[in-house]
Specification:
Layout lengths: L12 E4 L2 E8 L5 E4 L4 E5 L4 H20 L1 H5 L2 H27 L3
Parallel strand pairs: 2-4
Antiparallel strand pairs: 1-2, 3-4
Helix pairs in contact: 1-3
The structure holds zinc ion.
The site of zinc ion (ZN) has 4 residues, from helix 1 and helix 3.
Length: about 110
């Protein structure tokens, strides 16, 4: 049986901790951007499906830090970015790998 081709498309909105954020594709240099006050997550146009997913997870992490109030406590964009990158590069690859094994029943 041929393997089903992976097809992912970004949702138009995402709800984090009961707060709904609009997802908007945008021509921009960064992969993603999040406007907490406007409740919008911007994703760069033209990314691959996996880059879109990774960028969405990254921006959702910023949203979670914003909702929790940790963004305010840190009050430092570089510290927050480093914290989010720990998840991007050290946690998410394992989540993806193990979730794939989980849904395949291995
Ligand atoms: Zn970031």
């Amino acid at each position: 049986m041929p393997r089903k081709k992976t097809s992912y498309s970004l949702p138009s909105t995402i709800t984090v901790g009961g707060m709904q954020f609009k997802i908007v594709l945008k021509d921009m240099e960064d992969f993603g951007e999040m406007d907490f006050d406007k409740k919008v997550i911007y994703i760069r146009k033209g990314l691959t499906q996996e880059e879109e997913l990774d960028t969405l997870i990254h921006e959702v992490h910023h949203v979670a830090l914003g909702i929790s109030g940790l963004s305010n406590i840190m009050d430092d964009e570089n510290t927050e970015e480093a914290l989010v990158r720990i998840v991007d590069y050290l946690v998410m690859p394992i989540v993806k790998q193990e979730y794939k094994r989980f849904i395949q029943g291995k």
